[in-house]
Known about the structure:
The structure holds two protein chains of two kinds. By secondary structure, chain A is an alpha/beta fold.
Amino acid sequence: xxxxxxxxxxxxxxxxxxxxxxxxxxxxxxxxxxxxxxxxxxxxxxxxxxxxxxxxxxxxxxxxxxxxxxxxxxxxxxxxxxxxxxxxxxxxxxxxxxxxxxxxxxxxxxxxxxxxxxxxxxxxxxxxxxxxxxxxxxxxxxxxxxxxxxxxxxxxxxxxxxxxxxxxxxxxxxxxxxxxxxxxxxxxxxxxxxxxxxxxxxxxx
Amino acid sequence: xxxxxxxxxxxxxxxxxxxxxxxxxxxxxxxxxxxxxxxxxxxxxxxxxxxxxxxxxxxxxxxxxxxxxxxxxxxxxxxxxxxxxxxxxxxxxxxxxxxxxxxxxxxxxxxxxxxxxxxxxxxxxxxxxxxxxxxxxxxxxxxxxxxxxxxxxxxxxxxxxxxxxxxxxxxxxxxxxxxxxxxxxxxxxxxxxxxxxxxxxxxxxxxxxxxxxxxxxxxxxxxxxxxxxxxxxxxxxxxxxxxxxxxxxxxxxxxxxxxxxxxxxxxxxxxxxxxxxxxxxxxxxxxxxxxxxxxxxxxxxxxxxxxxxxxxxxxxxxxxxxxxxxxxxxxxxxxxxxxxxxxxxxxxxxxxxxxxxxxxxxxxxxxxxxxxxxxxxxxxxxxxxxxxxxxxxxxxxxxxxxxxxxxxxxxxxxxxxxxxxxxxxxxxxxxxxxxxxxxxxxxxxxxxxxxxxxxxxxxxxxxxxxxxxxxxxxxxxxxxxxxxxxxxxxxxxxxxxxxxxxxxxxxxxxxxxxxxxxxxxxxxxxxxxxxxxxxxxxxxxxxxxxxxxxxxxxxxxxxxxxxxxxxxxxxxxxxxxxxxxxxxxxxxxxxxxxxxxxxxxxxxxxxxxxxxxxxxxxxxxxxxxxxxxxxxxxxxxxxxxxxxxxxxxxxxxxxxxxxxxxxxx
Lengths: 205, 665
Ligand SMILES: Cc1ncc(C[n+]2csc(CCOP(=O)(O)OP(=O)(O)O)c2C)c(N)n1
């Protein structure tokens, strides 16, 4: 069987992981590619950890990426990229938002003196690199603010994804899918967010 | 959105989630009535139908519970309308009283029930295997593995339903419901709704003599449907030649001594795993899992040396296969539950199938999944857990903060129920002594009353109250139990996506209904001691809560406060933005009362000076945390713009804030 291009989208409930996956899925269809996505809606969307799987290509038929076989992890939050690293293939690419969201459970541990400090961004990145992954860092919150709405972080990330050379979907298809998925009255902000994300891309190191 | 494929005339190639594809298929099948009670993983079926209402002549009802939903669909069918009803796995337990009898009475208009199992209990109270409902109720049941198949099966189900006058079941699992993929949709041909005049030429009853007649009728239909099961392409033979998947039987027998019987999403995992190992196998994919195609299975088994049964949860298919093997091929080696990684626990996936097939074939694993996962998990061991929890601005946070304080050190039994407040069960809060299923808090309380001296406190959401709480209340009042019922009146069924329920003024798609007054209802049920609270007023509520807790008998605390997701989404639609709070770092003394056991996702600690910090993009300005601070360090950001230090909750509040901002300039 021929291979497939596998992706993991992840983040924190409320950040728009499912919408991010929808955009990528529809962009694939526009590009004439077969795609299957597996999402989880429900309990985890209440500020929990959220993950979606995407398989692009003729032969993939399962909604789950096998462990160690994702080509890309696209993460709206750095710790979530590390959490799902076991899906990434050796040497795969992690595209992550740099903005850490500390869960209330962690904050409470600090407040109660059960932990000295928060997990730091640098530690997370170091762990991701130690796995052999390449990493692309995107300050999505800052770019989303620049676009005009901090809630467009997910579209910024899709923009960054569209700039990755090995992604089988072109920029135009991705942008069309963005336009299709966002509220009509927020089209301009989202297009700006997408372009800012696209422009921010630097090849992974 | 994929919603465009719902309004599309067709035929077309669509990208849809299975939950959308089944709606498309139902609409193409001219379904006129849809009823449901929300539950994951079926919620997008509900929202897709709701969106379809303004495009098609269609009736939809958010029923009070699953039993009523099924009865509603059945009633519509009795008078000749095609109907569709969906619910989660455990919802069928509630509906099953009607379900078993419906198999006896039969139906008229095509009637399809989608029931969605949730292996791994991602969003459910159990991993219950709904396939047994088909078998034990004598109703035909489909088990799709992809959005396309779910779509095709719904269309077939309407034919089958009317051909045999039977309710037809479509059983899905989370990984099917939430799977998106390519679906080839057909023409949308619909007719307008025309009510008939009931002519009473046939009745739908089952008791004594009519039940026995119904049973015989049902058995006859089942017998006939066995023929259908043998012939339907949903039960199909395939083979994998080591590289590709083909339809039918392999051209020769040698090299095909392994056969695999599978259904649902495990089929997908199986095919991909065969590809990874490059091995040959015959496949029998069973799409109609009741009645199973016994003859087809028997023929499939005959030439095999080994047969593997690939199914999640209980050994449902395996039982049939075992029975059929005895005649068809007694020496075949059967690999089912207990073989390699196969258990009755949780979900399957590709790595598990690769492992099982590697064991069965002797081919080495192409990749060491286990040690890879272990290595990566070790790298991730610095991460804090991120369990789901209450949103910023959630009224439940306020209610339970006051409740915990009002109870103090009194040893109580906390009988919890099903809704967003069930998250109290999870770490790090872990506060609940029991939690079973919807409405159970009250029945459990009755029993606890007989066996323990403690005060029992029950927590129940407004939707759950109507769904299954009322019988438990009547029971508690009538039998003179001693409990305090906390009703969380957040206006919606929050956990499943903020649907309305009988206490709301609206029904579906903004249509007006009659809102039932919860307090009057509780009074009508005989509760004498009732206190009403504003969920967000943490301090003020203590005294009132204590009053209710001290009452001997059944008392109720109704805690009012809209679900934050619902409230602020509506507020944004009205063109307003929440006015967040902030921490004045000069005042903050760092006792962290706004953090400990409060767990608001908007609040963290600023590591530069250890003060608390509120993220303005997450905070909605509910003001609960400000009451937790003994130093007055938490204030509305309105104060920074010349506004008052208060909660700006409604559109009117917001307009006032905007005006003060103007004045401040
Ligand atoms: C029998 C059954 N049907 C549906 C569900 C799905 N479900 C889980 S939580 C929930 C919401 C209950 O709403 P409510 O009691 O108002 O609490 P809220 O989430 O609003 O706090 C539902 C319907 C279930 N678990 N069991």
